[in-house]
Each structure stands twice: as structure tokens, then as C-alpha cells.
Design brief:
The chain is mostly beta strands. It has two domains: 180 residues, Jelly Rolls (Sandwich), CATH 2.60.120; 81 residues, Immunoglobulin-like. 9% of the residues lie in helices and 48% in strands. The chain has three helices and 21 strands. The protein starts with a helix and ends with a strand.
Length: 285
């Protein structure tokens, strides 16, 4: 009897032994979905209050296709004029709810497959009272079961979220970002900071494998970007806030970028070649 049971269990497992593997990246040209989960503050018990779809701009998420960046911030949309006691404590004049703002893409076609979600964190200046992570969420068909994997977003580093717990009930796959913390006063927007993410940047090994070289790096005068056999069309330099600070036109496999007028810090170079685009991290010392 045990032998029959084990054989049956193995047969059930067979479809998942060779589960397909998919990889997705941060894509600022995509159309994102917004969703909010609202909770009582921990001091008030932390109970779930409601969840609903939310406009991405109302989450205070800025998707900039031109810069290739997504900026994540605390939620200010719910503050209104500050007189609603549901959202604003009228005694302390502080946010009265914990707001979890989710900005994500949804693709049911990814269900039944292992998934890796990659990106890079250009900057993270958000206040310590907020938690910001990248996630993969997998639901069953009626959304009664949630499996979630997350990754922290560390400034100047790539991130990778990996989902491998593939099951037959998997039906809906979402991947993106969530910002969790008190709903905030718009007057505090600058002080509370933000997180800026983009497509994954290339590490040294990746650059070599793709025959792209950056030297010297760090540098305080000039960066040279070269390819072995690809024509570089443009290089756009972004600061950690996702602002384009320089655009260089190219027409060969070598571009030299003078950085003497730039402040010290980390920059991202979006390199457009005849065969596609890549992003690398540059350091001005």
C-alpha cells in the first residue's frame, strides 16, 4: 500500500520537476497597477481595515519611461485637508493609518513557472519609518491564498526576488514594489524621501561577458565606455534621483565622458547600442 502511495505522490510531482523558469526586470515603460492595503496603526492594534485598487499617481509612485526609473514614496493622497479623523489623528495631527501602497505588474501567464524579478536601486533616502521592498506575489484563482517573496532595496545595488515554490493552484502572478508606513502629510514630502529603482545594472562580470568595458571607474576626470563590436549610439548619465545630467552622442565603439563638473557620488549610464540598451553604474570620486 505504501508503495502505491509513494508512486502516486511522485506522479503528482512530475509536472513541477521541470517547471519553466522566467526572468523579468524593472520596466518603466510598462503600465503599472496600484493597490492599497490599509491597516490600523500598530498602537491601535494593527488590524486590517480594507484593500482596494488605487491610482498609481495617487500612491505617489512616479513612473518615468523617459528616464527608465520608478520613484517610490510614502502616501500623501489620503491626507486631504487634514480634517478627516479616519486618516488624520486630530490630536497629534499625524497619519492615523498604516498604508501599504503596491505598484506592480500582473501576468497570469507566468503562473506555473519559477520566476526571478531583477532590478537596481539608484537611491534610497526614505525615512526609517517606512519599509520599501521589491516583491513577487503569487495567488490562487480566488485570491484566498498568497505566497510572497521580497527583497530589500539597498542604494547603489542590484536586487533580485526569486520565486520557486511552484504549485498547481498558482493562478495570478504579480511583481513590483510596496511602500508600507503611516499615511503622511504632503508638507513632509521632501523630508520623508523616496526610493528610485531602475533596470538592473551590470556588475564587472556581466560587463565583461557582454563585451562592454568602463574605465577608469571610479574616476574624477573621465569615464571611457567601449564595446568590442557594437556601435554606441548614445549614453545618458543619470544621478541617483533619476535625473538625466548628461547625454553623449556616439558613432563608434568608444565614448569618453568628462565628469569633472559632476558632484562626487554614484551615477547610472544608460548605453544604447545597435543591439540594444544596457545600464552600468559609474562612480565619481
Amino acid at each position: 500500500m505504501k508503495q502505491i502511495y509513494y508512486l502516486f505522490a511522485m506522479l503528482l510531482a512530475l509536472p513541477f520537476l521541470g517547471a519553466a523558469q522566467n526572468t523579468v526586470e524593472v520596466d518603466a515603460s510598462a503600465t503599472y497597477i496600484g493597490y492599497a492595503n490599509v491597516f490600523e496603526l500598530p498602537a491601535n492594534g494593527g488590524d486590517f481595515v480594507f484593500g482596494d485598487f488605487w491610482g498609481v499617481p495617487d500612491l505617489k509612485t512616479v513612473v518615468d519611461a523617459g528616464a527608465g526609473t520608478i520613484t517610490l514614496q510614502p502616501n500623501y493622497n489620503t491626507w486631504g485637508d487634514g480634517t478627516d479623523p479616519f486618516w488624520v489623528d486630530q490630536t497629534t495631527m499625524t497619519g492615523n493609518k498604516t498604508f501599504e501602497g503596491n505598484t506592480f505588474l500582473e501576468d497570469p501567464a507566468l503562473a506555473g513557472s519559477e520566476l526571478t524579478f531583477n532590478g537596481a536601486t539608484m537611491s534610497n533616502t526614505i525615512d526609517a519609518g517606512y519599509d520599501v521592498v521589491a516583491f513577487i506575489k503569487v495567488f490562487n484563482s480566488d485570491f484566498s491564498v498568497l505566497k510572497e517573496e521580497t527583497s530589500p532595496l539597498v542604494a547603489g545595488q542590484n536586487f533580485s526576488v526569486v520565486y520557486t515554490n511552484v504549485e498547481a493552484a498558482d493562478a495570478v502572478v504579480q511583481y513590483g514594489f510596496k511602500v508600507t508606513g503611516p499615511n503622511a502629510n504632503p508638507a513632509d514630502e521632501a523630508a520623508l524621501g523616496s526610493v528610485v529603482v531602475t533596470a538592473p545594472t551590470l556588475g564587472i562580470g556581466d560587463v565583461d561577458a557582454l563585451k562592454v568595458s568602463v574605465y577608469p571607474n571610479p574616476s574624477n576626470q573621465v569615464w571611457n565606455i567601449s564595446t568590442a563590436d557594437q556601435n554606441i549610439k548614445t549614453v545618458v548619465i543619470y544621478d541617483v534621483l533619476g535625473k538625466a545630467v548628461s547625454t553623449i552622442e556616439g558613432n563608434s565603439n568608444l565614448v569618453s565622458i568628462n565628469n569633472e563638473t559632476l558632484s562626487r557620488g554614484i551615477y547610472m549610464a544608460q548605453i544604447s547600442t545597435d543591439q540594444g540598451e544596457k545600464t552600468v553604474k559609474l562612480i565619481k570620486n
